[in-house]
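We include this case.
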Amino acid sequence: MRQVIFNSFFGVGADANAYYAAARLPDTLYNLIAGGALIHAFIPVFLAYEKEKGEREAWRLTSLVFNLVLVSMTVVLLLGEFIAPTFVNTILIPGYTPAERDLTTTLTRIMLFQPLILGLGTVITAILNSRRQFLLPAVSLAVYNVGLIGGLLVAKWVPGVGIYGPTYGTLVAVLLQLVVQLPGLFKQNVRYSFVWDFRHPGLRQVLILLLPNALAISVAYIGNIVDTHFTSYLPDSASLAALHNAEMLQALPVALIGQAVGQSLLPHLAAQAVAGRYVRMRQMALKVIGVSMALTIPAALLLALFGKPTIHLLFEHGAFDAHASDVTNLALLGYACALPGLAAGNLLSGGFFALKDAWTPFATNTYALVVRWGMLYFLFQFIHGTEAILVVPLALAISAGSESIVMAFLLLFRLRRYIKRDEGMKRLEQRRRYQKARKQLPIQLSSNHE
């Protein structure tokens, strides 16, 4: 509903392009500090602290993380406001006109308040997820869209608001996203305290996991900035908005398969890792790979086959014309190829985070970014004209697919090495030695008697 309304009002014109481009810097800064990186770093340490040191110390650790996010995101907000003009004009969209770059800069500065609010909400989401409470975080994502739709309706009813309606609507949306999770937080009997202690061992563990984890996720968002940079030079001015719409359609199965399943899978993997049940982790990893392929390949085929009628049915209204539909469908064909690799990568990364290893996902994400950048340069040499928009999603497909293969190999190899350390295998080996000793005991007694 949100995207249907947005497309109907703004189509794939200059305002839409500026709006989508303006979200790049806030999204990158948010994911560099918080985002999924914080959730993956926080949950294993929180569970370990709760088990080993009790609830009081676990809530103290939570307060430290919350306070650190508050201060860090405030600094990031101020820094982002300062660098926004240079970033937009020289890095993000240098191929656009000066008027489009000025509008993008203004919208970027407004949206930079979003990471601060989202960062605080992410700490709440991490607490709820660590307690295996997933309903309210899921509802908060839906409520986000409600706030944004409200901004779109203001743009429709109030003359002169234009693209500033959905821009300010994003700020209202993230506030709603935070507020809706508060009842679930209060039910957990959370104990907040304003503490600040960088020497706290639990906070250090979170930061040790957060640094490579945040870098790994930010690498993916840097990839989006690279895509936007290349897109600004494409001959069709509708390219950036068309890519966004196509990516959103592709993101639905990625979210359902990769992110939703991966988010609920992480606490189970973390619990198995803490208990030293590596055989079960390996079995679950194999199942994850199988289920991912079984679900994403048919989903990719459905996107390719039914993308055009879906785009026509959902989006081709108002300012979103037939040309916008054609360009969006062309981009969707490329993104459909990227679906299996993206979903598998989201699922497999949870295995490394459960092992408290965030450096491997960072290394594989960096590898994927290099491949993606290289593919952009390579494919632009062969694909031209109206089909040039395919370069961006195809580069993503190649990089995501190769990254998921590398991650699967590394995770299975790691777990195979850990099997000897598995607590269940140790108990089984002890039982075998005990049974063997019992069998040998009568023979020894008989020999002594003789």
Observations:
- The mean pLDDT is 84.
- Residues 1-216 form one domain.
- DSSP finds 17 helices and no strands in the chain.
- Residues 270 and 354 are 4 Å apart (CA to CA).
